[in-house]
Amino acid sequence: MKKFFALLKVSVKSMLLSSSNMGRKNRKKAATGVGVVLLIALLGLYMSGLYSSMLMSVLAPIHMEVLVFIFMGIGALVGGMMFTVFAAKGVVFGGKDNDLLLSMPVSTTALMASRVTAIYLENLLFSFFILGPAGAVCAFMTESGVGHSALFWVRLLIAVLALPLLDTALSVLMGALVAFVSAKLAKGSVIGQNIVMALYLAAVFWFAFNLNGMIEGLAANAAGVKESLSWAAPMLWMADGIMGDWGKLALFALCCAVPFALMVFGLGKVYRKAVTAFAARSARNDYKLSAQSASGQKKALLRMEARRFFGIPVYFWNSGLGLIMLVAMGAAALVMREELRELLGVLGGTLPVMPIAALLMGFCLSMTVIAAPSISLEGKYLWILRETPVGERTLLGLKTGFELMFSVPCTVIAGVCLTIALELSPLEGAVLLLAALLFCVAHAAFGMFIGLAFPKLDAVNETVVVKQSLAVMLGMFVPMAALALCALLYWLGSLLAPVLAMILPLALLAAFTAACGLVLKIGRASCRERV
Question: pTM higher than 0.70 for the full model?
């Protein structure tokens, strides 16, 4: 067991932490791990708290609380798979330390079990923050006494522990399939992963826009909806078990534990062969002679950034999701402008519409972390880039400008759509666009600086850099804190004078933009030794 826990510690670090050879590395790794845990926890709490309360408001009066756990269980299962499929592909089958670990006197089954357990822990975290709040909402809003006994929480805990077993088994099997396809068809796998993520995102947006109609349908035919979900039998067993059926809860736990055990022992027997085969296929190169087009330095560097951005699915979808949400928000507001105007009419002008639109745009832009991980994604090949006849100012300017090349047009499109949909005055529309563009520039400059200050050049894969590095966490949450400060200044300004309500946040954004640009310019020399 001592060997297993040592391997598990390494695997968990590969999932949640990123190693670094710089000073104060323990504090940086701890901050990175805490950031990942907080991100998963906040996402789970938001999803579960919002949708559970909406469902319970309709289902509690007809005593169909069981449907809440069915839907939340499906959400935890699907969400966990989307989080960990590509992580399983990278950590379990594509880890750079596989050769070292496979050479140690440890059975492949124990190594496989440690890798899989690390993925289980991440799924367990997400499952806890999905099913736990759902249980709390059920206990608070129920009209039939569900959740008011200690046994209810015991059954819920068993479900929370069991569900990630099934989630992990499916994630690892799909990760093996993705690793096989990636090794066999390198370019085709990237396209396939992008298609899968695009379909998943389209399903999320469809669900969000049709949620109200679905809830109304649940109220009219809750029993029929439950019968129609027979294809998700394990989730039905879990929900009925949580509500009090111990037999179905045991059946659900068995349904989760058996596939997990079969996956660990089955893949453990062939783990060495699988990892070797994947590595051998990915190491193969097919060389083709072709004419090479000439281009300038800036054009070549921009092409390199574009190939990396669009060629690494985890980079594209994690860093570009904010821009997709930004454009989708503007388009949805334009399409649903009549409903928005009716809602604003009912509220009677009590909400500050333009500042709320600015905060939403800023939130989407905060999630667009393209510049922050760009230095770290160079990895061990950064020295090649530094030896090229390109000045540091040009190189960093292009990396910063690459983010702006996408974020500025999306910001303008969303700002114009929101101005039209919300019927803002020309002055308010101009202020909205100016504030969003200032924040856009500041965010890119700050991301570039923070990427230089906290590089991760020895991460085991791109997933660690894009999803779990300290630079990405700071590049996302520090701008969000600046947005909160802008909201506070707007509120304080509105108490003094209406003009100050607009001037103070704009002044702060202008100062933030200038400070980020200045710090990036000055800090370039001090960060040179770090990278």
Answer: no
